[in-house]
Amino acid sequence: MTTPTALFPALLAADWHALAAPVQRVHGAAACMRARGMAEVEGAAHLPARLLRRWLGLPVPGPAQTLEVTIERQGRTETWTRRFATCRMRSQLTGAEDGYLHETLGPVRLHFELRRDGQAIDWRLRGGRLFGLPLPRACFGRVASRSGAEGDRYTFHVETRLPLLGRLVAYRGWLEPVDAR
Q: What is the reported pTM?
């Protein structure tokens, strides 16, 4: 059996094959994939949270937002561009020898351990950096992320709560692939 080279199959190894088909389609090995769906976005309304969301390119709270996601893959590096109703959020995901998924969003780099939970993926935050400098884990608060499936749809739920700021952003919804090459 050959070792998978795409990012998520490589990080999840044997657990990859137990994931739901929609999860495998979105996190699979196509060089480029586009998907469309809907998202509910929530977040604190106070000024510091609004400014931090804008600085990081995070989505603006609002109900029933259309969402388009483009994933461009080169080996074990993926560029995710998410177009919510009112903003564009772009991040780069990579894998490394440490076995973690690293997501870079502006000046922030988060380190996630990926775990299979049934047919879904739980992303567990293990640390991070700001402007390349490591910060104590507590500075990043609580980041919960889950990628799963409901029927033929890929589903997601992401929530970030920061010390002193509260819920920075939480978004959940679904996607359906429309193009994969």
A: 0.90
Question: Domain count of the chain?
Answer: 1
Look at the block and give the residue holding tokens 């799963």. 148
Nearest-angstrom CA–CA distance, 103 and 49: 20
Say whether pLDDT at 2 is over 60. no
Query: Structure tokens of 49?
Result: 């949270």
What residue type is 99 in one-letter code? G
Integer Cα distance of 138 and 141 in angstroms: 5
Q: Give the CATH number of the domain where residue 131 resides.
A: 2.40.128
- pLDDT number for residue 78: 95
Instruction: Read off the DSSP letter of residue 58.
Output: P
CB of 121 closer than 8 Å to CB of 115: yes
Does residue 126 lie in a domain region? yes
Q: How far apart are CA 181 and CA 179, in angstroms?
A: 7
Supply the pLDDT for residue 12: 94
Contact 169, 46 (CB under 8 A): no
Tokens found for residue 77 = 């590096």
Residue 90 lies in domain: 7-180
Q: How far is it, in rounded angstroms, from Cα 109 to Cα 128? A: 5
Could you tell me the two tokens for 62?
């609002």
